[in-house]
Amino acid sequence: MRRRHLLQFLSAVLLSYASSRYRTTATATANEMQSNTSRIVVIGAGLAGLAAARELHHQGHKVVVVEARDRPGGRIWTSHQWPDTPLDLGASWIHGVQNNPLTALADEIQARRLTTHYERATTYNTDGQPLSRAENDRLERLETQVLNALTQAQTGDEDVSIRQAIAPLMQGLDRSSGRYRWLNFILSSTIEQEYSGSATDLSTYWYDQLQEFDGGDVLFPQGFSAITEFLAQDLRIEFGQPVQAIEWGRSPLRVVTSRSEFIADRVVVTLPLGVLKAQTVQFSPALPPSKQEAIAKLGMGVLNKCYLRFPSVFWPKDVDWLEYIPARHGEWTEWVSFKRVADQPILLGFNAADRGKAIEAWSDAEIVASAMTTLKTIFGDEIPQPIEAQITRWASDPFSLGSYSYNAVGSTPKLRQALAAPVGQALFFAGEASHRKFFATAHGAYLSGLRAARQILAL
Ligand SMILES: Cc1cc2nc3c(=O)[nH]c(=O)nc-3n(C[C@H](O)[C@H](O)[C@H](O)COP(=O)(O)OP(=O)(O)OC[C@H]3O[C@@H](n4cnc5c(N)ncnc54)[C@H](O)[C@@H]3O)c2cc1C
User: Fold this and answer.
1) 304 strand-pairing partners
2) Percentage of the chain with pLDDT > 70?
3) pLDDT value at position 23?
């Protein structure tokens, strides 16, 4: 996920590894929990859950985190498959380092960070040629037209999708024309890759409600998981416990997993929006209508990553971002080079929204072959094959069912408040989707967890 220069411009214009350290035996039975006076179960050991649990634990509450996977972090997930190169399969960047609470955590553990720059980018046309200066200017003018169309549609009587809003710009265009491809490229690179929803579903009124911290974007050469491992320290986390039911209409509450059950006075739910939508966890009684409406109407999007490690670097060494204007919408429009920033012969290709979801059904070999077709178009048939690849499938992941949330047509920012609202003094909610200002981000998830903790502490 990236914050592009265009979006800064836009705001102006528009106003499985499981560390034994964490392992506990699944002995938190009803009897054991019943002996404690202040009992809190936090569901999910992602950033939101860890933030809530840590805060409550520090304030003296008896907290147990119940997590389906065998690792903490959720959508923060550093792969150590290539031992010399940790790679983030979920979030990579702290977006906007100034005043970002994750910067303070990273400082506290002295985690190394590297800055990537959006200005260090080259855009390649469909035939693989880098855009000339004149073509770059033309692309920028087209971006301005797209933004103007969106601004205008934001004043309309009815919310429409981004694609509908820019339909006048596409009207009558031959699908094989350059202008048609360029418009689709703008939709993919600046909107779908950023917000993870399809342009056919993103709300024109609200798609850009995400607020940002100032400062650059940094990533962790040793992996983002350093943060979640730090937060998980000293917490009691029950791994491998997929929650199936939350019985909150009784006192004490009961959280039922596939292996055991937990008794609590309060429960903090940090299930991803995709999981809430799928209703794989039964709430008994059912959640209030306002919360069900929020879950149904907010969108859960897809951003997938494909890391390719090559024997040597064959692309420009001084760029961080490579962009490609494909013949078909959304195909390999955005790449990050790890050469300049980490001195690694690694390219990271992204696929978002509909395209990101579609390729999850492909084999790894098919995905790599598709990526190589694009890279050969740009750099020639002689480029080496990748030695290794790592590929994500976040939409198919049963404990995520998507990458992060977006504002879909028919949703409003208020729905995020409904998603965040506690239900009585029993059920509390956190998770990136529940943060009105910083949804879709790691810092939004973290702040939402602190919010839920504060709500409990205030009781
Ligand atoms: C590919 C990708 C790239 C991203 N890039 C960035 C980026 O660069 N910067 C940024 O700021 N953000 C980025 N994000 C978004 C960021 O990762 C998320 O917003 C954030 O990590 C979400 O944290 P969370 O705690 O809300 O949810 P999660 O991390 O998903 O935590 C929820 C937890 O609940 C668990 N769970 C699910 N179902 C059950 C169940 N039934 N029982 C028990 N536990 C369950 C899950 O296993 C998980 O551990 C990216 C996300 C993805 C997927």
Assistant:
1) 351
2) 92
3) 29
The domains located in the chain, with CATH, are 5-12+114-214+300-391 (3.90.660.10), 16-75+224-297+412-457 (3.50.50.60)
Nearest CA to ligand 1 atom 5: 91
Which residues sit opposite 220 in a β-bridge?
none
What pLDDT score does 20 carry? 29
Residue to mutate (ligand 1; options 194, 195, 404; most atoms within 8 A of CB) = 404
DSSP state of 253: E
In the reported structure, the alpha carbon of residue 355 is separated from the centroid of ligand 1 by a whole-number distance in angstroms of 20
> Residue 72: pLDDT band by 50, 70, 90 thresholds?
very high
Give the separation between CA 260 and CA 254, rounded to whole angstroms.
10
46 C-alpha to center of ligand 1: Å? Answer: 6
Amino acid at 68: A
Q: What is the mean predicted confidence (pLDDT) over 257-277?
A: 97
Whether the CB of 68 sits within 6 Å of ligand 1: yes
Q: Which two tokens stand for residue 207?
A: 């798609």
Count, residues in the chain: 459
Rounded to 5°, angle at Cα 380 from 376 and 382: 100
CA angle at 11 for the pair 274 and 99, rounded to the nearest 5°: 75
Task: Establish whether residue 445 lines the binding site of ligand 1, counting it when its CB lies within 6 angstroms of any ligand atom.
Answer: yes
Residues 6+ apart with CB under 8 A from 283: 245, 246, 248
Do residues 306 and 351 make contact, with C-beta atoms less than 8 angstroms apart? yes
Q: How far is the CA of 168 from the centre of ligand 1 (A)?
A: 37
Alpha-carbon radius of gyration of the chain:
22
Among 413, 455, 411, which residue's Cα sits nearest to residue 430?
455
State the pLDDT at residue 227: 98
Here the tokens at position 222 are 């040793």
State whether the beta carbon of 271 lies less than 6 angstroms from ligand 1.
yes
pLDDT tens digit string along 438-455?
999 999 999 999 999 999
